[in-house]
Specification:
By secondary structure, the chain is an alpha/beta fold. The protein has two domains: about 10-80, Orthogonal Bundle (434 Repressor (Amino-terminal Domain)); about 90-280, Endonuclease, Chain A. It has 13 helices and six strands. The chain has helices spanning about 10-25, 30-35, 40-50, 55-65, 70-80, 95-110, 125-135, 145-155, 160, 175-180, 185-200, 250-265, 270-280, and strands spanning about 110-115, 170-175, 205-210, 220-225, 235-240, 240-245. Strand 4 (about 220-225) and strand 5 form a beta hairpin. The longest helix is centred in the C-terminal third of the chain and has 17 residues, at about 250-265. The chain starts with 8 loop residues before the first helix and ends with a helix. The mean pLDDT is about 95.
Protein backbone atom coordinates (compact mmCIF):
# COMPACT_ATOMS: atom_id res chain seq x y z
CA UNK A 1 0.00 0.00 0.00
CA UNK A 2 1.28 3.53 -0.78
CA UNK A 3 2.73 5.66 1.97
CA UNK A 4 0.37 8.31 3.33
CA UNK A 5 1.32 11.96 3.46
CA UNK A 6 -0.31 12.31 6.89
CA UNK A 7 -1.84 9.60 9.05
CA UNK A 8 -5.12 10.23 10.87
CA UNK A 9 -5.41 9.63 14.61
CA UNK A 10 -7.34 6.41 13.87
CA UNK A 11 -4.64 5.15 11.52
CA UNK A 12 -1.93 5.98 14.05
CA UNK A 13 -3.90 4.18 16.76
CA UNK A 14 -4.00 1.02 14.64
CA UNK A 15 -0.22 1.18 14.25
CA UNK A 16 0.28 1.86 17.94
CA UNK A 17 -1.80 -1.17 18.91
CA UNK A 18 0.16 -3.41 16.53
CA UNK A 19 3.39 -2.09 18.05
CA UNK A 20 2.04 -2.72 21.56
CA UNK A 21 1.22 -6.33 20.66
CA UNK A 22 4.70 -6.80 19.16
CA UNK A 23 6.42 -5.44 22.25
CA UNK A 24 4.21 -7.58 24.51
CA UNK A 25 5.38 -10.60 22.49
CA UNK A 26 8.99 -9.61 23.16
CA UNK A 27 9.87 -9.13 19.49
CA UNK A 28 12.11 -6.42 18.08
CA UNK A 29 11.06 -4.60 14.94
CA UNK A 30 13.53 -6.41 12.71
CA UNK A 31 12.39 -9.79 14.05
CA UNK A 32 8.72 -9.04 13.37
CA UNK A 33 9.58 -7.65 9.94
CA UNK A 34 11.43 -10.87 9.08
CA UNK A 35 8.42 -12.94 10.09
CA UNK A 36 6.30 -10.78 7.83
CA UNK A 37 8.78 -11.05 4.96
CA UNK A 38 9.51 -7.33 4.83
CA UNK A 39 12.10 -4.92 6.25
CA UNK A 40 12.23 -2.88 9.43
CA UNK A 41 11.50 0.37 7.60
CA UNK A 42 8.22 -0.99 6.25
CA UNK A 43 7.16 -2.28 9.66
CA UNK A 44 8.03 1.08 11.19
CA UNK A 45 5.78 2.80 8.65
CA UNK A 46 2.94 0.45 9.53
CA UNK A 47 3.37 1.06 13.25
CA UNK A 48 3.48 4.83 12.79
CA UNK A 49 0.32 4.77 10.67
CA UNK A 50 1.91 6.28 7.56
CA UNK A 51 1.60 2.99 5.65
CA UNK A 52 -1.67 1.14 5.22
CA UNK A 53 -2.02 -2.48 6.21
CA UNK A 54 -4.25 -5.22 4.78
CA UNK A 55 -6.52 -7.59 6.66
CA UNK A 56 -4.15 -10.46 5.91
CA UNK A 57 -1.18 -8.58 7.29
CA UNK A 58 -3.02 -7.71 10.50
CA UNK A 59 -4.00 -11.35 10.98
CA UNK A 60 -0.46 -12.56 10.27
CA UNK A 61 1.07 -10.06 12.67
CA UNK A 62 -1.37 -10.81 15.50
CA UNK A 63 -0.75 -14.54 14.96
CA UNK A 64 3.02 -14.01 15.14
CA UNK A 65 2.45 -12.00 18.32
CA UNK A 66 0.36 -14.85 19.83
CA UNK A 67 -2.58 -12.50 20.40
CA UNK A 68 -5.49 -14.58 21.73
CA UNK A 69 -7.97 -11.68 22.02
CA UNK A 70 -10.19 -12.42 19.03
CA UNK A 71 -12.44 -9.40 19.60
CA UNK A 72 -9.41 -7.11 19.54
CA UNK A 73 -8.09 -8.78 16.38
CA UNK A 74 -11.42 -8.28 14.59
CA UNK A 75 -11.53 -4.65 15.74
CA UNK A 76 -8.02 -4.06 14.38
CA UNK A 77 -8.99 -5.71 11.09
CA UNK A 78 -12.01 -3.40 10.87
CA UNK A 79 -9.75 -0.39 11.44
CA UNK A 80 -7.34 -1.58 8.74
CA UNK A 81 -9.99 -2.29 6.10
CA UNK A 82 -12.26 0.70 6.70
CA UNK A 83 -12.32 2.70 3.47
CA UNK A 84 -15.35 4.85 4.26
CA UNK A 85 -14.93 8.53 3.42
CA UNK A 86 -16.83 10.20 6.26
CA UNK A 87 -18.57 13.56 6.08
CA UNK A 88 -15.59 15.16 7.86
CA UNK A 89 -13.38 14.57 4.81
CA UNK A 90 -14.97 17.55 3.06
CA UNK A 91 -13.13 19.74 5.59
CA UNK A 92 -9.69 18.23 5.03
CA UNK A 93 -7.30 21.03 4.17
CA UNK A 94 -9.75 23.63 5.49
CA UNK A 95 -9.83 22.81 9.20
CA UNK A 96 -7.12 21.69 11.64
CA UNK A 97 -6.51 17.94 11.52
CA UNK A 98 -7.65 17.33 15.14
CA UNK A 99 -11.14 18.58 14.18
CA UNK A 100 -11.39 15.79 11.62
CA UNK A 101 -9.80 13.20 13.89
CA UNK A 102 -12.34 13.91 16.65
CA UNK A 103 -15.24 13.62 14.21
CA UNK A 104 -13.91 10.28 12.95
CA UNK A 105 -13.35 9.05 16.50
CA UNK A 106 -16.94 9.92 17.44
CA UNK A 107 -18.27 8.25 14.29
CA UNK A 108 -16.74 4.92 15.32
CA UNK A 109 -17.36 5.24 19.08
CA UNK A 110 -19.84 2.99 20.86
CA UNK A 111 -20.48 5.61 23.54
CA UNK A 112 -19.22 9.04 24.67
CA UNK A 113 -18.52 10.62 28.06
CA UNK A 114 -17.66 14.28 28.57
CA UNK A 115 -16.49 16.24 31.58
CA UNK A 116 -16.45 20.02 31.14
CA UNK A 117 -15.69 22.71 33.69
CA UNK A 118 -15.69 26.02 31.80
CA UNK A 119 -17.59 25.39 28.55
CA UNK A 120 -20.70 23.51 27.56
CA UNK A 121 -19.59 20.27 25.82
CA UNK A 122 -19.36 20.62 22.06
CA UNK A 123 -22.05 17.99 21.37
CA UNK A 124 -24.54 20.00 23.45
CA UNK A 125 -23.72 23.45 22.08
CA UNK A 126 -26.14 25.57 20.09
CA UNK A 127 -24.89 27.22 16.92
CA UNK A 128 -24.82 30.66 18.55
CA UNK A 129 -22.92 29.36 21.57
CA UNK A 130 -20.34 27.61 19.39
CA UNK A 131 -19.92 30.72 17.25
CA UNK A 132 -19.27 32.86 20.33
CA UNK A 133 -16.66 30.41 21.66
CA UNK A 134 -14.81 30.10 18.35
CA UNK A 135 -14.89 33.83 17.63
CA UNK A 136 -13.08 34.57 20.90
CA UNK A 137 -9.84 33.18 19.50
CA UNK A 138 -6.75 35.33 19.06
CA UNK A 139 -6.39 36.28 16.34
CA UNK A 140 -10.11 36.22 15.65
CA UNK A 141 -10.77 33.81 12.77
CA UNK A 142 -12.03 35.22 9.45
CA UNK A 143 -15.75 34.85 8.88
CA UNK A 144 -15.28 32.10 6.31
CA UNK A 145 -13.18 30.03 8.72
CA UNK A 146 -15.54 30.72 11.61
CA UNK A 147 -18.49 29.51 9.54
CA UNK A 148 -16.63 26.28 8.72
CA UNK A 149 -15.76 25.63 12.38
CA UNK A 150 -19.36 26.15 13.48
CA UNK A 151 -20.81 24.03 10.68
CA UNK A 152 -18.39 21.23 11.46
CA UNK A 153 -19.33 21.32 15.15
CA UNK A 154 -23.04 21.20 14.35
CA UNK A 155 -22.50 18.20 12.05
CA UNK A 156 -20.67 16.37 14.83
CA UNK A 157 -23.87 16.39 16.87
CA UNK A 158 -25.30 13.69 14.60
CA UNK A 159 -23.66 11.06 16.85
CA UNK A 160 -26.17 11.86 19.60
CA UNK A 161 -29.05 13.31 17.54
CA UNK A 162 -28.95 11.22 14.38
CA UNK A 163 -30.58 7.90 13.45
CA UNK A 164 -27.66 5.90 14.88
CA UNK A 165 -27.21 7.86 18.10
CA UNK A 166 -24.81 6.47 20.69
CA UNK A 167 -25.18 6.60 24.50
CA UNK A 168 -23.86 9.91 25.80
CA UNK A 169 -23.17 11.19 29.29
CA UNK A 170 -22.01 14.70 30.10
CA UNK A 171 -20.88 15.99 33.49
CA UNK A 172 -20.88 19.79 33.47
CA UNK A 173 -19.73 22.14 36.21
CA UNK A 174 -22.06 24.97 37.18
CA UNK A 175 -19.37 27.41 36.03
CA UNK A 176 -19.81 26.30 32.42
CA UNK A 177 -23.57 26.81 32.67
CA UNK A 178 -23.26 30.27 34.17
CA UNK A 179 -20.49 31.77 32.04
CA UNK A 180 -22.10 33.92 29.33
CA UNK A 181 -19.99 33.41 26.25
CA UNK A 182 -22.35 35.79 24.44
CA UNK A 183 -25.51 37.47 25.80
CA UNK A 184 -28.55 36.52 27.88
CA UNK A 185 -30.53 35.35 24.88
CA UNK A 186 -27.80 32.93 23.80
CA UNK A 187 -27.36 31.73 27.40
CA UNK A 188 -31.08 30.99 27.80
CA UNK A 189 -31.25 29.20 24.45
CA UNK A 190 -28.21 27.10 25.40
CA UNK A 191 -29.70 26.00 28.71
CA UNK A 192 -33.02 25.21 27.02
CA UNK A 193 -31.18 23.14 24.42
CA UNK A 194 -29.40 21.12 27.10
CA UNK A 195 -32.71 20.47 28.85
CA UNK A 196 -34.32 19.36 25.59
CA UNK A 197 -31.51 16.96 24.72
CA UNK A 198 -31.35 15.56 28.25
CA UNK A 199 -34.90 14.22 27.86
CA UNK A 200 -33.65 11.60 25.38
CA UNK A 201 -33.20 8.12 26.85
CA UNK A 202 -29.64 7.80 25.53
CA UNK A 203 -28.44 11.18 26.84
CA UNK A 204 -27.58 11.85 30.47
CA UNK A 205 -26.57 15.29 31.75
CA UNK A 206 -25.22 15.74 35.27
CA UNK A 207 -24.29 18.99 37.00
CA UNK A 208 -21.58 19.68 39.57
CA UNK A 209 -22.80 22.69 41.61
CA UNK A 210 -20.54 25.33 43.09
CA UNK A 211 -21.57 24.47 46.65
CA UNK A 212 -20.47 20.85 46.41
CA UNK A 213 -18.03 19.97 49.19
CA UNK A 214 -14.86 18.08 48.37
CA UNK A 215 -14.71 18.58 44.61
CA UNK A 216 -11.07 19.19 43.65
CA UNK A 217 -11.38 18.04 40.05
CA UNK A 218 -11.46 21.36 38.25
CA UNK A 219 -8.66 20.07 35.97
CA UNK A 220 -10.55 16.97 34.86
CA UNK A 221 -12.09 18.17 31.57
CA UNK A 222 -12.02 15.26 29.15
CA UNK A 223 -13.71 13.55 26.24
CA UNK A 224 -13.91 9.76 26.56
CA UNK A 225 -14.85 7.68 23.51
CA UNK A 226 -15.63 3.99 23.86
CA UNK A 227 -13.96 1.83 21.23
CA UNK A 228 -15.11 -1.45 19.68
CA UNK A 229 -13.30 -3.12 22.60
CA UNK A 230 -12.13 -1.44 25.83
CA UNK A 231 -8.51 -1.68 24.67
CA UNK A 232 -9.38 0.76 21.87
CA UNK A 233 -11.04 3.38 24.07
CA UNK A 234 -9.65 6.90 23.62
CA UNK A 235 -9.43 9.99 25.80
CA UNK A 236 -9.11 13.39 24.15
CA UNK A 237 -7.77 16.35 26.10
CA UNK A 238 -6.63 19.83 25.23
CA UNK A 239 -2.91 20.22 25.89
CA UNK A 240 -0.44 23.12 25.63
CA UNK A 241 0.94 21.68 22.39
CA UNK A 242 -2.48 20.94 20.91
CA UNK A 243 -5.09 18.19 21.11
CA UNK A 244 -3.90 14.99 22.79
CA UNK A 245 -5.35 11.57 21.89
CA UNK A 246 -4.63 9.18 24.75
CA UNK A 247 -4.79 5.43 24.32
CA UNK A 248 -2.32 3.81 26.71
CA UNK A 249 -3.97 1.19 28.89
CA UNK A 250 -2.57 2.64 32.12
CA UNK A 251 -3.83 6.13 31.34
CA UNK A 252 -7.21 4.87 30.13
CA UNK A 253 -7.68 3.04 33.42
CA UNK A 254 -6.85 6.21 35.32
CA UNK A 255 -9.31 8.28 33.27
CA UNK A 256 -12.08 5.70 33.71
CA UNK A 257 -11.59 5.94 37.46
CA UNK A 258 -11.44 9.72 37.30
CA UNK A 259 -14.67 9.92 35.31
CA UNK A 260 -16.48 7.73 37.82
CA UNK A 261 -15.23 9.93 40.67
CA UNK A 262 -16.52 13.05 38.94
CA UNK A 263 -19.78 11.32 38.05
CA UNK A 264 -20.30 10.22 41.64
CA UNK A 265 -19.77 13.80 42.83
CA UNK A 266 -22.39 15.21 40.47
CA UNK A 267 -26.17 15.53 40.84
CA UNK A 268 -28.14 12.67 39.34
CA UNK A 269 -29.91 13.50 36.03
CA UNK A 270 -33.34 14.50 37.36
CA UNK A 271 -31.86 16.79 40.00
CA UNK A 272 -29.51 18.19 37.35
CA UNK A 273 -32.45 19.08 35.12
CA UNK A 274 -34.13 20.81 38.05
CA UNK A 275 -30.88 22.65 38.72
CA UNK A 276 -30.66 23.86 35.11
CA UNK A 277 -34.32 24.93 35.19
CA UNK A 278 -33.43 27.01 38.24
CA UNK A 279 -30.58 28.69 36.37
CA UNK A 280 -32.92 29.69 33.54
CA UNK A 281 -35.15 31.48 36.03
CA UNK A 282 -32.16 33.43 37.39
CA UNK A 283 -31.12 34.76 33.98
Amino acid sequence: MPRRRQATARQMRLGTELQRLREAAGLKGREAAALLGTDSARLSQIESGVAGVSEGTVRRLTAHYSCADQELIEALVAMATDRVQGWWEEYRGSLPTPFLDIAELEHHALYRYDVEILHVPGLLQTEDYARAVFSYGVPEPPQRVLDLWVRHRMQRKAVIQGPTSIPYEAVIHEAALRIRVADRTVALAQLAHILELSEADHISVRVIPFDLDGFAGAWTAMMYAGGAVPTLDTVVRDAPHGTAFIGSQTQLGAYRTLFRKVEAASLEPNRSRDFIHGLTKEL
